[in-house]
């Protein structure tokens, strides 16, 4: 009876360990293979902007002509400007709803998450900041 129980526990433990290893390897593989890198031509000293990465990806995958690439780049830039404007309007509307104390806290959080207010350089590093005391 104990030998059967030990066998079942051994098999179960092997299955759990195997699944965990498979999951870890799968995540590492997906990150290294499926995430497109920066377009060619970027040196070590400068990180490409997310828009540059996207354009490089589109140019390679869609085999865009120079004219098509320029037109798409203008469209993307115009949409970014519109998004920045909408984000600024939302900030103003949010501030109107908050109390002065909440507004001060909001400003600190907002400055940490999106430095420069007008431009959003990318996603926040590790999500929203921790709660303030």
Computed structural class: mainly alpha
- Run of helices and strands: HHHH
Main sheet overview: none
Mean pLDDT: 75
The helicity comes to 55-70%
The number of distinct helices, counting runs of at least 4 residues, comes to: 4
Please give the alpha-carbon distance between the first and last residues: 57 Å
Strand runs, count: 0
Describe the SSE topology.
Blueprint: H1 2-33, H2 50-62, H3 66-97, H4 100-113
Helix pairs in contact: 2-3
What can you see in these coordinates?
- The protein has helices at residues 2-33, 50-62, 66-97, 100-113.
- With 133 residues, it is mainly alpha-helical.
- It is flat.
- It starts with a helix and ends in a 20-residue tail after the last helix.
Q: What's a quick, concise take on this entry?
A:
The protein has helices at residues 2-33, 50-62, 66-97, 100-113. The protein is an all-alpha fold.
Structure characteristics:
mainly alpha; 133 residues; 4 helices
């Amino acid at each position: 009876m104990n030998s059967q129980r030990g066998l079942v526990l051994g098999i179960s433990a092997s299955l759990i360990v195997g699944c965990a290893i498979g999951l870890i390897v799968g995540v590492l593989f997906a990150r290294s293979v499926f995430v497109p890198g920066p377009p060619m031509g970027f040196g070590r000293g400068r990180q490409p902007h997310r828009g540059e990465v996207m354009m490089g990806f589109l140019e390679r995958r869609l085999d865009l002509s120079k004219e098509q690439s320029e037109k798409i780049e203008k469209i993307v830039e115009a949409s970014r400007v519109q998004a920045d404007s909408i984000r600024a309007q939302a900030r103003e509307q949010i501030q109107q709803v908050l109390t002065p104390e909440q507004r001060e806290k909001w400003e600190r959080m907002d400055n940490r998450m999106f430095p420069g207010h007008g431009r959003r350089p990318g996603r926040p590093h590790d999500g929203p900041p921790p709660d303030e005391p």
